[in-house]
Amino acid sequence: MSDASLNTASTPSQAGPGDAEFGDYFALLKPRVMTLVVFTAFVGLMAAPQGVHPVVAFAAILFIAVGGGASGALNMWWDADIDRVMKRTRNRPIPAGKVTESEAFAFGITLAAFSVVLLALATNLLAGALLAFTIFFYVVIYSMWLKRWTPQNIVIGGAAGAFPPMIGWAAATGTISIESILMFTLIFMWTPPHFWALALFMRSDYDEAGVPMLTVTHGRPATRRHILVYTVLLAALAVATAFTSVGGPIYLTVAVVLNGAFMLGAVHIWRRDEDMAEADNYAVERKFFRLSLYYLFAHFVAIALEASLVPFGLGGW
């Protein structure tokens, strides 16, 4: 696929003026992704050593959510041409002809400016700046540059989804600390094996769209090795986090159990070849991907539980 064919500006939209409904605009926000953004940001805010007034906390999470939604809308605007090709994205509002590309762009830009300014006013300039950088990173660095240029798109681009707990922490403290960096790194290291597992059984989508995922550029055997390496590094990081101020016995238990299961799944993926995978319709890869969905959620639930017990002298070490 040529660069010209990937230019979103050259692809006319099927939507007409006023055709879009509320649900179509809501879908532009990528609500599933926004849920993870909101949750990890909330945990970052909750785990921070300084308390925050409930009204300020609510405002912070609301504006972080709006900023995450703005990133999703701008990503769909830029990736409209790819979304029209891939099976799992062709029913999104723009390729489905429900929202025009110009409407999606205006919607995303407006929400981005709104969320950044109001977060800075409600909390502090650092939190607003981090949210602005996160939106920029996801839309420009990842969507416009990395995604179509390098098989490391998910590795580097994963930083965009890893910033929310840092933003939540900054909203509460006005600082960046080793604890917020560790929460960032946990998401950052989780992202590649999570998406590479998906790519193993969705490779045809990326082939047709011309997206240089690792499965396309280096093949599935190399992708399987990469999943194993990143899972080993992730497990070491996740368990080590248990012995910091955001960890504790609850988190350690969750980390040991989940990372043991995650490591076992990565080893099973590494040992497979294409004949084995095709024979069972990539059942092992699909199982690993489903586990990865619970993996991150469970770790951050454990961090939140540790933080909630600290005032009672029960959380942490």
TrEMBL record:
- What topology does the record note for this protein and the membrane? Multi-pass membrane protein
Q: What is its EC number?
A: 2.5.1.141
The reaction(s) annotated as catalysed by this protein in its Swiss-Prot or TrEMBL entry are:
heme b + (2E,6E)-farnesyl diphosphate + H2O = Fe(II)-heme o + diphosphate
CC per GO annotation: plasma membrane
- Membrane spanning residue stretches: 33-49, 55-78, 99-119, 125-146, 153-172, 178-201, 227-244, 250-270, 291-314
Role played: Converts heme B (protoheme IX) to heme O by substitution of the vinyl group on carbon 2 of heme B porphyrin ring with a hydroxyethyl farnesyl side group.
The protein in question is named Protoheme IX farnesyltransferase
Q: From which organism does this entry originate? A: Roseovarius gahaiensis
